[in-house]
């Protein structure tokens, strides 16, 4: 019995250094889904090049912010990745620390918080990710109005705009395309009311695998996910920028205030803004904040610049300020 007890104690003792090493080299991320924005590859590169282990996390931006606020007195996460409006709201909620990563001075002023609370790492353009094989003979939709047609009933998906940033970005894009403004979301709300008659699919988290399987033939999503499906996963997927217009939006990262592994979080932020980290995203068809990281080969796989002329930037501060009001209006009138 004594021998068994001694053996067990030795086993535990041998594991403790490993656990301590893992704990000391961890950086907890809120909202780093491996199937989204090619975070899976980025996480692997971070571990290989810095030694920092980042566990995957499948929250969306709204869920991440809600948890950061709930844990404010005793933070669990070390850094977070959010749509820009949620990044601004996280700053207002005082859950982010000031940190200016390496290369800070090279980042445009409108893509970073002046106090270092958040910084843009890449952007994406809203459009239609279409699984052509799953259309059952229907034509590829070319406009926002096309999605309202009966032949697309049950085929269209968009992420919940009251929770996921990509959903809110999609709602903003259609609102602007239909004549709305950041102070008037009525055209967008009316559009979603009409779309509801076509029985759309509205998940809360990234639906990338559901598009590949054909469960969601048409997803209102970012260009980078469509290009990834086409060029990496070899699916018969196309990306469409609707003829009425759309928007492009940044995603940001920030260090969590009083993070348990803040030094590791800083290493991650430094890495994703380094030439290596930016190249990983550029090679994954995202628009890195450092556009010099986009290789000619990657650039050639995007739609022509003439198509992207229909994608516009916005006043993201205004977009953030009215987000909660929009979410309440959407839940009240559409959902």
UniProtKB/TrEMBL annotation:
Q: Which GO terms describe its cellular component?
A: outer membrane-bounded periplasmic space
**Which superkingdom does the taxonomy of this entry point to?**
Bacteria
Record Gene3D superfamilies: Periplasmic binding protein-like II
- The residues forming the signal peptide are 1-22
What keywords sit in the KW lines? Signal
Keyword Signal in annotation: yes
- A single Pfam family, by name? SBP_bac_6
GO biological process assignments: thiamine transport
Under Gene Ontology molecular function, one entry of this record is: thiamine binding
Recorded protein name is: Putative spermidine/putrescine transport system substrate-binding protein
């Amino acid at each position: 019995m004594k021998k068994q007890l001694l053996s067990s104690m030795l086993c535990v003792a041998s594991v403790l250094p490993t656990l301590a090493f893992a704990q000391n080299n961890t950086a907890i991320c809120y909202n780093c889904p491996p199937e989204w924005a090619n975070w899976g590859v980025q996480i692997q590169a971070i571990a290989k090049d810095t030694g920092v282990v980042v566990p995957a996390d499948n929250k969306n931006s709204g869920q991440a912010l809600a948890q950061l606020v709930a844990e404010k007195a005793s933070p669990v996460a070390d850094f977070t990745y959010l749509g820009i409006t949620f990044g601004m709201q996280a700053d207002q909620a005082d859950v982010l620390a000031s940190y200016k990563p390496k290369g800070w001075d090279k980042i445009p002023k409108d893509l970073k918080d002046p106090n270092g609370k958040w910084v843009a790492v890449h952007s994406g353009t809203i459009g239609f990710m279409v699984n052509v094989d799953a259309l059952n003979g229907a034509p590829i939709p070319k406009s926002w109005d096309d999605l309202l047609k009966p032949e697309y009933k049950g085929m269209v998906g968009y992420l919940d705009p009251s929770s996921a940033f990509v959903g809110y970005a999609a709602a903003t894009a259609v609102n602007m395309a239909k004549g709305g403004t950041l102070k008037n979301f009525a055209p967008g709300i009316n559009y979603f009311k009409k779309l509801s008659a076509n029985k759309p699919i509205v998940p809360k988290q990234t639906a990338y695998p559901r598009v590949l399987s054909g469960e969601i033939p048409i997803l209102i999503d970012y260009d980078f996910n469509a290009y990834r499906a086409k060029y990496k996963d070899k699916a018969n997927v196309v990306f469409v920028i609707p003829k009425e217009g759309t928007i492009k939006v940044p995603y940001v990262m920030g260090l969590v205030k009083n993070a348990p592994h803040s030094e590791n979080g800083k290493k991650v932020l430094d890495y994703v803004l380094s030439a290596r980290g930016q190249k990983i995203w550029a090679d994954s068809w995202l628009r890195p904040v450092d556009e010099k990281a986009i290789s000619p080969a990657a650039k050639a796989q995007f739609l022509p610049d003439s198509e992207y002329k229909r994608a516009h930037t916005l006043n993201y501060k205004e977009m953030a300020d009215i987000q909660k009001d929009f979410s309440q209006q959407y839940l009240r009138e559409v959902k």
